């Protein structure tokens, strides 16, 4: 990363400082993770994604299924936090242990959803951040960049016991030569820490309501991300439609403005016509909300919550 970019990231990390007097427990981290998945799923209107209105471009998912999946993953996130806290630092051994926990969590998810992949990407993305957060101990101030760095260090170790992956995301990553979720994690979650969180905070600072601020954070991620979910479902036309459409909404003033909302509706129509869904961006928004909840955690163990 260029020195200027590193400096900007440090400035951003300072703005995102998480001042806590008591570090969240493993159980609290798991609840934050599940709440992040639930709030991402309920957020409406999201372009071509499952939300309160319906299934978007997904035939095998709906909101009730997404919520069952999220709740089923709470023991998984708690186990990830517990393992990382026990090991204390990133290592190949920890990477292997977390991978085993994550694979068991996938089976719990599939059982809860009747076989539908609701949160496989989120188990990896949010799960690593849970692990990173659990290893920070009682350090104060704790910041999002530090959590991301620890999670990235874990992700950089190979999973020695993993079978060769033939997932939709992996096939799209290889076909289109993009980084995918693995590179996102290994690079320190730039679409969360450098894009999603700053966009969310900027929207709030500008007086945008919480619902629209979260939509705009999602769109900011979409505008930049080489989303393998989009690439799998609709190839480069789907990716370009999502990126360009998201930029148009933001350039029009965001989803809370009349012109921005019109552009958001047009974006959804374009993605639905291509059977395309920005599922990777949705996982990264959930990660953004998870870190945002850590920022609002206080000494009594409470976290900020919004009615959306």
UniProtKB/TrEMBL annotation:
Record EC number: 2.4.2.52
Which Pfam families does the record match to this protein? CitG (PF01874)
Q: Enzyme class, one word?
A: transferase
Query: Example GO biological process term?
Result: prosthetic group biosynthetic process
Superkingdom of this entry's organism?
Bacteria
Q: Which reaction does it catalyse?
A: 3'-dephospho-CoA + ATP = 2'-(5''-triphospho-alpha-D-ribosyl)-3'-dephospho-CoA + adenine
Q: Name one GO molecular function term.
A: ATP binding
User: What keywords is this UniProt entry annotated with?
Assistant: ATP-binding, Glycosyltransferase, Nucleotide-binding, Transferase
HAMAP family assigned: MdcB (MF_01883)
The protein's role, per its UniProt record: Involved in the formation of 2-(5''-phosphoribosyl)-3'-dephosphocoenzyme-A, the prosthetic group of the acyl-carrier protein of the malonate decarboxylase.
Record-stated family: Belongs to the CitG/MdcB family.
Instruction: Name it.
Output: Probable 2-(5''-triphosphoribosyl)-3'-dephosphocoenzyme-A synthase
Q: Which organism is it from?
A: Paraburkholderia polaris
């Amino acid at each position: 990363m260029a020195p200027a970019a590193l400096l900007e990231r440090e400035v951003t990390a300072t703005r995102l400082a998480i001042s806590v007097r008591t570090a969240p427990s493993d159980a609290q981290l798991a609840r934050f993770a599940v709440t992040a998945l639930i709030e991402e799923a309920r957020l409406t209107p999201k372009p071509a994604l499952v939300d309160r209105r319906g299934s978007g471009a997904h035939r095998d998912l709906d909101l009730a299924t997404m919520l069952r999946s999220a709740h089923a993953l709470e023991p998984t996130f708690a186990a990830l936090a517990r393992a990382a806290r026990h090991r204390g630092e990133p290592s190949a051994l920890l990477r292997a242990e977390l991978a085993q926990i994550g694979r068991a969590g996938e089976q719990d998810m599939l059982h809860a959803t009747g076989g539908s992949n609701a949160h496989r990407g989120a188990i990896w993305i949010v799960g690593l951040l849970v692990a990173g957060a659990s290893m920070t101990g009682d350090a104060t101030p704790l910041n999002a960049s530090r959590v991301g760095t620890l999670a990235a260090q874990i992700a950089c170790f190979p999973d020695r016991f993993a079978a060769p992956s033939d997932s939709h995301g992996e096939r799209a990553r290889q076909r289109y030569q993009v980084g995918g979720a693995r590179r996102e994690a290994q690079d320190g979650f730039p679409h969360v820490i450098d894009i999603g969180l700053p966009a969310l905070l900027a929207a709030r600072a500008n007086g945008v309501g919480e619902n629209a601020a979260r939509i705009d954070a999602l769109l900011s991620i979409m505008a930049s991300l080489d989303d393998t979910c989009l690439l799998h479902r609709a190839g480069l036309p789907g990716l370009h439609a999502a990126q360009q459409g998201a930029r148009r909404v933001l350039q029009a003033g965001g989803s809370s403005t009349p012109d921005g909302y019109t552009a958001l509706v047009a974006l959804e129509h374009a993605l639905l016509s291509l059977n395309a869904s920005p599922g990777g961006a949705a996982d990264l928004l959930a990660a953004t909300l998870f870190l945002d909840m850590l920022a609002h955690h206080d000494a009594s163990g409470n976290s900020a919550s919004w009615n959306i």
